[in-house]
Structures are given as C-alpha cells and as structure tokens.
Amino acid sequence: MPEVYLLIDVDGVLIPFPDSEGNGPATHVRHSVVPTGYDAGSPVPIWLNPTHGSMLAELISELPLTPVWCTSWRGDASPLIGAKLGLEPFPHVELARQDITTSHPNGYLWKRDDVSAWLGTAQAAWIDDDFTAADHAWAAGRTAAGIPTLLVQPDPRVGLLPAHLETIRSWMAELVGMPSGPS
C-alpha cells in the first residue's frame, strides 16, 4: 500500500481556542511554552488535553499512517506540543511564512498550496479546524482523481474528539479493506 499521511494541525485541534475569559476547556491542562523566536520571559499559554497523546499514538500504532505536523508551529510542534502529550517526534510540513491577514487569502486555507506541493500524489487524512468549502472541493477532486484525501474538521473551541479519529479509522478501513469499528 502506498504511504498514507496523517497531517495534524495544532491550533484549534490540539489547542482549542480559549473562551471569552481566556480559558481552555475543562478537559485541557494549561501549559506555558516558549516558541522559537519568542522571549523566554513571556511564555505562551496553551491548553492540552492529556488524553490526546494516547488517542493519537493508538491510532498511529494500529493503522498504516505516517504522522506529520501541519501547523504554523512548524518545527516547534514536536518539542513543545507533542512532547507534552507523550508523542514521539514527527516531521512537519515546511509551511511558507506568509504576510496574510486572513487564514483564507485565496478562499481556501493558507496552508493548502504548501500541503498540496508537499503531498504530491500521496494519500492523506488531514485534521485541521479551518477548512473552507474550497478545501473540501480540493480533497474531493484529489479523491476523484484516485488520490484518497480525507479532511477532518474539529470545532476550534472544542478541538479533537474521539469521533474524529473514528472517522479516520473508517476511512482507512475502506482504503485498505480492513474491518472498521472497535475490536
């Protein structure tokens, strides 16, 4: 079977957007991190759900997926996010740094051009909270062309849920002819 990538976003997926008072969901634990280029005296607060690490590790161990960070956190994703979740380091898609004022400068997610070039003809399940109808049409077009592509879109205020990973399991079951559902 050809390689199948699991592209994982961070903000809005593993780090839900805070509520109006600046807090994350009750299921998440607050951490402070210092991304590359930031002042160590001004750490960035993030909220992570401690169960996400084991959920993702289980998915990756049971399915023939290659995990890759696909986030503006870039190379910081593994040491600052993944490590706090107990995940092994993953490579990341090198996303161009763009001077944009919207995450959809061309009507679709700003990452998509870089992701499309990076994937080439590889199959992928991509978890991101910020897809547009144009992104879903892009994925449908790739799938119709024989390059299965699944977009999974969590609510950015809630983040990743077990149901999202079940969607990926079902999709992979169809892709490789495996039985789906819990064993």
TrEMBL record:
Recorded hits in Pfam families, A to Z, give:
HAD_SAK_2
What protein name applies here?
Answer: Secreted protein
